[in-house]
Write a structure and sequence with these properties.
By secondary structure, this protein is of the alpha+beta class. It has 10 helices and 14 strands. It has 2 domains: 164 residues, no CATH class; 186 residues. The strands form 3 sheets. It has a 7-stranded antiparallel sheet. The longest helix is centred in the middle third of the chain and has 35 residues. The radius of gyration is 24 Å and the shape is elongated. Bound molecules: zinc ion. Zinc ion binds next to loops.
Length: 393
Amino acid sequence: MNRNYRFRLYPSKAQEMEMLETLDECRKLYNHFLDEWKETEKVPPKYDLQSKIPAMVKKHPALENVHSKTRQYVLWQLYANLRGLRGSKEKGRKVGRLRFKKYGRYKTFVYNQTGFAVIDNKLHLTKIGEIPIRLHREIKGKIKQVYVKREQSGRWFAAFSVEAEPEKLDTTGKKIGIDLNIQNYLTDSNGERVEHPHELLKLEERLKIEQKKLSRKKKGSKSRLKQIFRIARVHERITDRRRDFLHKLSRYYTENYDLVAVEDLAVKEMMQSAYNSKNTADSSWSTFIQMLFYKAEGAGRAFVKVDPKNTTQNCSRCGNRVYKQIWVREHRCPACGLVMDRDHNAAINILNKALLEVGSVRPELTPVEMRPLLHPMDGASFVKEAGSSFQKP
Ligand SMILES: [Zn+2]
């Protein structure tokens, strides 16, 4: 199984220059081949493409400063993009086209299999040097890939894709259902409530204020540029905090329960979008579920997604349907007299549905299929990139 880690890098000025240079060379390589293939109907085989690199390097000696695997990866990425696009086209979907990357818009380069090592709080990268790294977690397993990313605010991060042995946890004999809701972050079948982190809410407020300030700055002015960076920083802090919060929460549930049940979000969103499209669009829910899935898989836990139909309305004690509007916070069953918090009742229903499903349909507790993370960085990003219209002149 793969595990992802993300750490902050602290390059020196000289190293940063090298890294920016690498990004820009990758960008040019990407654009060069995009230009060459954008019109071709059939994308040539991957290894034919690869064989074109040496000639490119001869023509552009600056490419010598980029690790060979990094250059290769640029082509593979472009190749995958083109293939994906063609594939959708063949299926008759309407597709756009790949665009050239402008200066500063290429943000990640990759070291694949070779050319890197982590030694004593330093990330050694061939062609770049030994970059100080803050390893706030122990890396368990073999590092297969390193993604180096520059954030909008100018901070650098390394994301490691690590092949690790699953760590089977001891059984706890406990099972839990989780109701994701708007009122709180979640409510579980024990009646435990987790609220949206206060700090996060405060940062979101701050973001709004900073964005308002931006609208008052003169176009093209220095202070506007500064403000754009300030906003990018707040965005990143929100992303960091949220990721942290979700990691802790998903770890808590995986460690303490043999089985974790949630609602199938895709279905839930469809059901709610009719009258409540704005709130259900909270993308952090799907990230949370993804994290739960990966952690459960790694720990040998069962993770079950259930159809959300009637989980809110049904009485968790007697099964009687008690219709309630969205603003009714309490479940009151006229049939059996159960009075309970609405979301707590829903969480119990979710758990019961999962147990039914696991017991009758799946004797083995197989985790349900999930969309794989395309990229450890993308998967972890919750907010749109800040100031996306901003480009370095
Ligand atoms: Zn009842």
